[in-house]
Write a structure and sequence with these properties.
By secondary structure, this protein is of the alpha+beta class. Among the domains are: 17-94, Phosphorylase Kinase, domain 1; 100-284, Transferase(Phosphotransferase), domain 1, CATH 1.10.510; 310-424 and 432-452 and 474-526, no CATH class; 532-602, no CATH class; 879-1013, no CATH class; 1023-1127, no CATH class. 55% of the residues lie in helices and 9% in strands. It starts with a strand and ends with a helix.
């Protein structure tokens, strides 16, 4: 592909071109000067210099070619062709003998007049680009070419350019931002509450002119994050102050160009050119007075993005963030009517976040997708993962190590909710299923730990959850957990909600009440409508007129909108669109006729106004918006393509008008590569990557959706569900499962085909299982009930599915606190069980059901019933002779064997015996509560089963109960008890049985180790039990370990301050999980310490100023806590 020229340089071979020299080389791009052989035309070739570029990279250079070709402007480089070169592509463009402006600046000592002339021409060309409907977004001296002989100037490199009037910039790592970092406008960083529009080019122009005059950029740093902060918060010294030879007028022009807020910059290239022209004239008359922007009025309707009338609220928001940065946790709630400006206020926090190198993530609850658990949290943390993936390989490796170190094998739990995490840590092994309560505890603990990884002093975390009034209960519960956890520091949670949609009994309000009662730092900001004077100021700034001129129109606008900022914006845009407000070019000002406006019927209902706006769009665009509104607040091009049965490129083209009218917005920059031209390999092919859009406001989505009747709405949802079901491949089914099921649930009357109903019943059961796995039990119950509906009259043809539905319904009713309903479904499932396997499934579930409800007799009776299916008979009560017989049988099985050798027993291969062992293990807790001896008797049976048929996963607890408690504790054979405890631990490790790990460690320490080893050695077991309980959700044994740890440290004489510190740490957790018995035990020890330190009222009392002894006794009276009485 390459050949060597006469100079010895190696250049690539391009068919049909002769390469003369290389002009530029970057890691991804090479630029060459050459000659087109067919007509000897001098050309420049821009090559994507990557051996095997990705689809996005290829589309990017194609996008640059398409946009450059579309701009008919003398100041824009002319492109001739787009060529495929081996596996990559190249742009062929004109060669007018130019060099980059940077080279021209470096090689020549330019006069002030020459510099001003160059600045004037660049400004003119930028204005022509904007008038053609484009924003360049990467103006800098390397992208400006100048012919040194003729001084002709042209702008190149439209790879970042946009056809949109406004564009949102995502928050991302600076190294991956579009544009050149030294020249980008503050809003291009994604860290300002501003959209990107044509005025970003003025900022870059200002930086370029600054460099043109001073031979250096305004800001210098090698740290990309620091560069972003400088763009956001620092103003450079005036050019004139640094070099008195530079005219003060151009210095003022540059200062206005590089204003941080776009509203304070020039609003038109005409205004810039006028002021540069004035600077040229001032060279001859330097005393001439100069005011920048005197002739600067934009002919484009630009409603300022800055917030009006919210300075007090902004200060409170930033103060809360500073409080968080000091190592605290805070919750800020912003309330108000729809469209009042809640979300806009929140985004004002971007600047301080950038200063602190913090994370800002956001998720939005969707009113039409309330049954999808954790939807907003998934959005937020998926965006966080995507931010991290833009960092360097070293940083990604750092995050991988941190996440695995903190979460360990529990990482899979988070990946079940945030699947994109796999791109950082890779695939993880599946986790052992736990009982529902333990599973919930495990999930909660690990999710909180996951969040804490990112909420650190070096990078505080701000989590913004929009529209909390539509939040699902699991999300509200997680919000409560995160805010009440005393170890969650450097964490700010911001939520918005519509107070008029949240009554006193609303789940969100109840959650907030609990948070307040738990001492959570909450600041609530209530946004009020804008006042008439503020509306007048908005109009004055928008139309560059004085307040008196704007007042009559402001009065009308306020009357129509009641000061609602979203409505104000939509109303002004609609007036402009209907030419009720227009720019008068001869007069250079905005014009409106208040009498004419008053005679036009203008709706004072924002939905009606938006509906009318949507109806002005082409029919094809309207239809797409209706479909999109049914999909959700955000929707992918891929999905819209499936449901509309049209190509992605065609859809993108038809959505462009909606983008420019700011009804929808793209998420990310990939949208640019659709709709401009044919794909690289022809019209018959569609791009193999996707684009996501979102509605700019809920009201816009509602207006699009409201154009459908109820029947049409159901038909659309049915169509979407059907097409998704038909087109989604099996590997992606899990990701789209909730979407598919929810669309059919909203078109349920149309689901009549028996085969479809059966399939949907199975899919809905999958959705229920996925929701339950995510601890979203309320959603799981709704999905199970939906599955029942879909199965309907076809239950007879699918008895196994009906049985599964009944068992799952029972369990989810139980998990939602509906005890009697759950029992009824368990009993119905028991009736319908047709074989032993099904009977075991339901009976085992019922053992846990009754045990968790404290109905130990029913649990034990159910367990006996289940074991009879395997020919094993358990006595209803403890019968000593039978116990002795079983004990003798155990001794016979143990003959000639050492306890330590039992770990080497072969694993039992008999599935029936394994199930029987599991059932015995399930009822041991109930047996212990009925009578401890009964528990030991059943443990002996379990050990006999294992000795005869081989070791099994659930042996560990049986060994520890029999050996540790009975042999070691009751019989006093401490060495043997200790050996059985070690056997149980080894057995637990052998099978990696996570659900029993905390229990085995606690019982080993509490009943066996302390007989033979010092207390500090025994405490190691308690610590392991506590840590394992946290990790795997066994809060019962965790709490036991916490109590015993405090007691052990106290009894063995550790310094009281150290014991008190440990006690308060454990107390905070057991109180948070509402374990009153354990809390009482720990508090008894803490009261004792206070007494011994002389901090109580008198030596015989445990009462102190803030803690009344009698009240404490009443608090623990309901719990069998004897510790206080013993210590007292």
């Amino acid at each position: 592909m390459r050949k060597t020229g006469s100079s010895g340089d190696t250049h690539p071979e391009f068919q049909g071109f002769s390469i003369v020299e290389q002009l530029f080389q970057s890691p991804s791009t090479a630029i060459y000067r050459g000659v087109r052989l067919s007509d000897t035309l001098p050309v420049v070739l821009k090559l994507l210099d990557i051996p095997y570029p990705s689809a996005i990279q290829l589309e990017h250079i194609k996008h640059e070619f398409d946009l450059t070709r579309a701009i008919d402007c003398p100041g824009v480089i002319e492109v001739y062709a787009f060529e495929k070169v081996h596996h990559t592509s190249a742009i062929i463009m004109e060669d007018f003998g130019a060099i980059p402006l940077r080279s021209h600046m470096e090689k020549n000592k330019l006069s002030t007049e020459e510099k001003l002339t160059i600045a004037y021409r660049i400004s003119e060309i930028i204005g022509d680009i904007h008038n053609a409907g484009f924003i360049h977004k990467d103006i800098n001296p390397n992208n400006i070419l100048i012919n040194p002989d003729t001084n002709e100037i042209k702008i190149i490199d439209f790879g970042c350019a946009s056809r949109l009037i406004h564009e949102e910039q995502l928050f991302m790592h600076p190294d991956y931002m579009e544009g050149t970092l030294e020249y980008i406008a503050p809003e291009q960083t994604g860290r300002m509450n501003r959209p990107v529009d044509y005025r970003c080019d003025y900022y870059s122009l200002g930086v370029t002119i600054y460099e043109l005059f001073l031979n250096q950029c305004p800001f210098k740093t090698s740290d990309s994050m620091e560069m972003v902060h400088l763009h956001l918060a620092s103003m450079p010294l005036d050019l004139h102050d640094q070099d008195r030879s530079i005219p003060n007028s151009i210095s003022k022009v540059v200062q206005k160009l590089i204003a941080k807020n776009a509203e304070n910059r020039y609003q038109s290239s005409v205004g810039i050119c006028k002021d540069i022209e004035a600077s040229l004239l001032a060279l001859d008359t330097p005393t001439l007075a100069f005011t920048p922007g005197k002739y600067d009025v934009s002919d484009k309707l630009q409603i300022p993005s800055k917030l009006y009338g919210r300075s007090a609220e902004i200060k409170r928001l930033i103060d809360a963030y500073e409080y968080v940065c000091d190592g605290n946790s805070a919750v800020v709630l912003v309330t108000g009517y729809s469209g009042i400006g809640k979300s806009a206020l929140i985004h004002e926090i971007h600047k301080p976040i950038a200063k602190r190198h913090g994370f800002f993530i956001t998720g939005k609850f969707d009113q039409y997708r309330r049954d999808i658990p954790y939807s907003a949290l998934i959005q937020a943390f998926t965006s966080l993962i995507q931010q991290i993936l833009t960092e360097s390989d070293d940083r990604i490796a750092y995050w991988r190590g941190r996440i695995i170190a903190i979460l360990g094998e529990s990482s899979q739990l988070i990946m079940d909710v945030v699947p994109d995490l796999k791109y950082i840590i890779g695939e993880q092994p599946p986790l052992m299923p736990l009982e529902p309560q333990e599973a919930q505890n495990r999930f909660n603990y690990n999710f909180v730990n996951f969040v804490k990884i990112f909420a650190q002093a070096e990078h505080p975390l701000t989590l913004f959850l929009d529209d909390l009034q539509w939040a699902d209960n699991p999300s509200l519960h997680m919000l409560e957990l995160l805010s009440t956890n005393s170890n969650c520091n450097y964490q700010m949670i911001i939520g918005t909600y519509r107070h008029n949609e949240v009554e006193a009994a609303h789940p969100m309000q109840l959650t907030l009440n609990r948070m307040r009662n738990g001492g959570v730092w909450i600041d609530e900001l209530s946004l009020q409508p804008l006042q008439p004077a503020v509306v007048a100021q908005i109009l004055s700034d928008t139309f560059s007129c004085d307040a008196q001129t704007a007042q009559p129109l402001a009065d009308l606008v306020f009357t129509k909108t009641a000061g609602n900022s979203f409505f104000i914006n939509q109303l002004l845009k609609n007036m402009h669109r209907n030419k009720l407000i227009y720019y008068d070019y001869p007069e250079h000002q905005w014009i409106w006729d208040i009498t004419q406006i008053g005679q036009v019927a203008i709706s004072d209902n924002v939905i009606e106004l938006l509906t009318n706006i949507i109806r002005t769009l082409p029919d094809s665009t309207q239809q797409l918006l209706k479909l999109a509104a049914c999909i959700g607040n955000s929707f992918s091009l891929e999905l819209l393509s499936v449901v509309s049965q049209r190509s992605k490129g065609l859809i993108a083209t038809e959505l462009h008008i909606a983008l420019n009218q700011m009804l929808i917005a793209p998420v990310g920059n990939e949208y640019k590569y659709f709709g401009n031209a044919a794909p690289l390999d022809g019209e018959q092919s569609d791009r193999n990557f996707d684009v996501t859009y979102r509605f700019m406001h809920d009201r816009i989505q509602q207006a699009a959706s409201d154009q459908l009747s109820d029947a049409e709405n159901g038909a659309v949802h049915f169509k979407i569900g059907s097409l998704l079901l038909e087109n989604v491949k099996d590997p992606l089914l899990a990701e789209k499962l909730f979407d598919i099921v929810n669309h059919f649930s909203q078109s349920i009357e149309m689901v009549v085909d028996p085969a479809l109903r059966l399939r949907l019943a199975k899919l809905t059961m999958m959705a229920a299982g996925k929701a339950k796995k995510s601890i979203a039990y309320e959603s799981a119950l709704k999905y199970i009930m939906l599955a029942e509906h879909f199965l309907g009259d076809h239950a007879r043809e699918s008895p196994q599915l009906l049985f599964a539905i009944l068992v799952e319904r029972a369990e989810c009713e139980q998990l939602n606190g509906n005890r009697d309903v759950a029992e009824a479904f368990y009993l119905e499932a028991q009736k319908r069980a047709v074989n032993r396997d099904e009977k075991v499934v339901v009976l085992e579930a019922m053992i846990h059901f009754y045990t968790n409800n404290g109905e130990f007799d029913l649990a034990y009776r159910t367990g006996r019933q289940a074991l009879k299916l395997f020919g094993i008979t358990l006595t209803a009560s403890f019968i000593p002779p039978l116990f002795v017989a079983d004990l003798l049988k155990l001794k016979w099985h143990m003959r000639g064997r050492k306890i330590s050798e039992l770990i080497m027993l072969p694993i039992c291969q008999d599935a029936e015996k394994v199930t029987a062992m599991r059932l015995i293990g399930a009822l041991l807790k109930a047996a212990y509560q009925i009578r401890p001896e009964l528990c030991i008797a059943n443990a002996v049976k379990a050990v006999n089963l294992s000795l005869k048929h081989g070791t099994m996963e659930d042996n560990a607890v049986a060994y520890i109960v029999f050996g540790g408690i009975f042999i070691g504790g009751v019989m006093g054979k401490h060495q043997a008890g200790y050996e059985f405890a070690q056997l149980a631990i080894a057995m637990n490790d052998r099978f990696d049985n996570l659900k029993q790990r905390s229990e085995v460690n606690f019982v080993s320490g509490y009943f066996t180790d302390f007989w033979l080893n010092p207390a500090r050695h025994t405490e190691e077991y308690y610590l392991k039990a506590y840590e394992n309980g946290l990790q795997y959700g066994d809060y019962f044994h965790l709490s036991c370990a916490a109590c015993t740890m405090v007691q052990s440290q106290f009894i063995r004489g550790l310094p009281l301050a150290e014991v008190e510190k440990t006690g308060r740490e454990y107390l905070a957790f057991v109180e948070r999980i509402n374990n009153h018995e354990s809390a009482g035990t720990i508090m008894a020890a803490l009261h004792t310490i206070q007494n011994l330190k002389g901090l109580t009222e008198n030596p015989c009392s445990f009462a102190k100023n803030s803690e009344d002894e009698e009240q404490f006794i009443k608090t623990i009276h309901c719990c069998p806590v004897k510790d206080f009485a013993v210590i007292k």
